[in-house]
Design goal:
Layout lengths: L1 H10 L3 H20 L1 H22 L4 H9 L5
Helix pairs in contact: 2-3
Length: 75
């Protein structure tokens, strides 16, 4: 089992590339199976879910995001 963890530790510097490759493979399969626009909708929802999860991990509120988006619109 420790060999497995050593292997994972060696892959740690390449984490972004590995995740990006897996995501690209996933999107490619979606495009082949469902078409470009349906895959695009799925990718948008995945990105939105990631963004909201990141906000939750950082303990930020969605109301703070809302205020930042609309603060300069009062004109």
């Amino acid at each position: 089992m420790s060999n497995f963890f050593q292997f994972l530790a060696q892959l740690a510097p390449y984490r972004g590339r590995i995740i990006g490759t897996i995501f690209g493979l996933f999107v490619g399969i979606l495009i082949l199976k469902y078409g470009f626009f349906r895959a695009l909708v799925v990718a948008i929802f995945i990105s939105l879910g990631y963004y909201l999860g990141l906000k939750m991990d950082r303990r930020e509120t969605l109301s703070g995001l809302w205020e930042r988006l609309w603060r300069n619109r009062d004109g």
